[in-house]
């Protein structure tokens, strides 16, 4: 038995307007999310690079984490904000930073 939703009617006179409204709402959300991502990335990039410069990595593991952080900052900058890889790179960056700071605390 089909699911019936009284709010969604198959009315061709209102369908184009409804579709347009839904598309605009999707655009609104996507634009806000993408803008926040770019703004946040542009803030975290110099903060991270400045931190790495002020606190040079000691030890092989931490030197690798620092290299990963620098690489990922570049990859994020080179990846389209609309790509799923952008989010994956950001997650990898968070992991690399957490590991860098853990190693730093151990030293």
Number of strands: 0
User: What is the arithmetic mean of pLDDT?
Assistant: 86
H/E topology pattern: HHH
Distance between the termini: 65 Å
Tally of discrete structural domains: 1
- C-alpha-based Rg, rounded: 22 Å
The amount of helix comes to over 70%
Which segments are poorly predicted (pLDDT under 50) over 5 or more consecutive residues? 1-8
Instruction: Name the overall outline.
Output: elongated
Question: What is the tally of helical segments?
Answer: 3
Helix/strand structural class: mainly alpha
Beta-strand level of the residues, as a percent range?
under 5%
Largest sheet: none
Question: Please, could you describe this protein's structure?
Answer:
The chain has helices spanning 15-54, 60-78, 84-106. It is mainly alpha-helical. It has one domain (18-105). α1 runs antiparallel to α2 (60-78) and α2 (60-78) runs antiparallel to α3. It is elongated. The N and C termini lie far apart (65 Å). Residues 1-8 have low confidence and may be disordered.
């Amino acid at each position: 038995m089909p699911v019936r939703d009284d709010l969604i009617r198959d009315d061709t006179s209102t369908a184009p307007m409804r579709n347009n409204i839904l598309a605009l709402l999707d655009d609104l959300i996507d634009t806000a999310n993408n803008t926040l991502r770019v703004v946040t990335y542009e803030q975290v990039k110099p903060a991270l690079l400045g931190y790495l410069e002020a606190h040079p990595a000691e030890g092989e593991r931490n030197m690798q984490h620092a290299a990963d952080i620098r690489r990922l900052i570049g990859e994020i900058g080179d990846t389209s904000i609309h790509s799923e890889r952008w989010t994956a790179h950001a997650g990898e960056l968070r992991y690399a930073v957490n590991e860098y700071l853990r190693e730093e605390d151990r030293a």
